[in-house]
Amino acid sequence: MRSDFDSLCKQARQDILIPEIPLAAIRQTHLQRSTRSATRRKSGLAGILAGLSIVAVAAAAQLWNGAHVVVPARTGVQLSTNTGSMVLRNPTGRDVDEAVRKLRFPVTLPAGLPAGTHFRAIVRFGTDALMLQYDLPGAWRRSNRLFMLILANPNSVNTVDHHRYKVNLKMHGW
Amino acid sequence: MSTFVAVELVEAARKGGSLEIEDLLGAVWPDAYRLVYSVLGSRQAAEDAAQEACIVVYRSVASLRSAAAFRVWLYRIVIRAAMEIRRRSALPELRLQTEGTEDETASIDLWRALATLPEHLRTVIVLRYFEDLSSREIASVLRMPDGTVRFHLATARQRLRPLLNENVEQESPAEVGTNAL
To answer: Is ipTM strictly over 0.95?
Structure first.
């Protein structure tokens, strides 16, 4: 059974006069904010990408003396030296093939990535390591947009018997 | 809350378009307004905060994981909007406008008694007795431990008792918890 206090509270709540819902104002504010946040998101993303590219190129130039930087009109920023190469921002399949050809170990590129995945950057370190960065599509964009893998020559990085290890990667929701 | 919106309405808004969302907003508006008014005691602030909460619901209801979680989710949004409005407009602790309430002494006494409570105690009392939330649900809305909610409830009831002619019931030890005074 309800106490006096409980009933009193329910009655007081019921007695509060409710004004009409300002639906037009709610709708309009929602639309304004949606437009504003979409614009802000786009410009923020462009800024981050530009910033990352510049930092990466600068870092690479410091690591590799005599680096040759190419900024083509359509594809990504390319950097190459006699010891390595780097393609930032949307490398093509040809860039990947070329990097793989220069490695001195058998490379198996990852398979089974979500449809719509594309390369964001590739970096070849000499002839023994390759870093692949993917841009994942759809829901992955919200939290795990960029996915990075480093493929390395087992003979260079592993002193124990590397044939004993088999790696499977399972990501939630994939 | 006994008159709370149907799960089907929330489900339709989650999966549907702006028409379904606006139907849902129409249904939750009275609850959102009452909640803010009970906590802040100002009609203007209640309208502003309820409107702000509705805008958040409009934007985010599609990403709500489950329709069953809607009630707690909504209350959390409404309370946050209320606190934000109070902070921005620098409202005094409570500015009750009792002209809209039933003109009965008991009701006016209740609002006056609530006005004597600090905001955090008034909020738990409103959520518990006005909105019928359990202490666990209140804990989820306010993002605080269940024990803290029960402690606040016990403290608030103790403070209200002399002001309301001891009308405030003493809940069972299980409800009050080990933190009871």
So the answer is: no
